[in-house]
Amino acid sequence: MDNQFTLKNKTNSKDDFLNRIIEHSHYLYRLAYRLTGNPEDAEDLTQETMWQAHRKSDKYVYEKSLKAWLSMMMTNRFRDKVRKKSLKVVAIEDNLLSPQSMSSYTPSVEEEVETKMALEKVKGEIEQLPEIYRNVLILRHFDGLSYAEISEVLQVPEGTVKTQLFRARKMLKSRLSE
Hints:
Order of helices and strands: HHHHHHHHH
Helix content: over 70%
Mean pLDDT: 76
Largest sheet: none
Shape: globular
Distance between the termini: 73 Å
């Protein structure tokens, strides 16, 4: 009887953890889509990451951010896939870079074209950044992670995150001013 109780408690805690993982599924899909640039690959990467996280639930340290732990797991899984299959990395979607629209202002056709060209240039320059700078920029500015969370995801000290983010911004600014 004691063994059944222990088994039931382990099953319940696994189910609770799975529910916590599922709560982050939309965030994980968006991150996967930014990494892969492809809906099918993003779905696969999201499912694989969630499955792996559920399998490794005993390795999760509850004091840490689940979102950061899942992001780290996904980023590592993606890096492995890139190494193995040479997936094309697409850093950012156009709609992520679009400026906040003002409700009463309607831009002219010329302004829309100029904005689109500028966004294409920014997107192209971000894609050309070295991987570590591209990743830290995306995690900070598009995923909204804190320095500590980025540190966990990339498995580097927080000071390194700040340095890499500074260098990424400086490099991007330099490239865009050319």
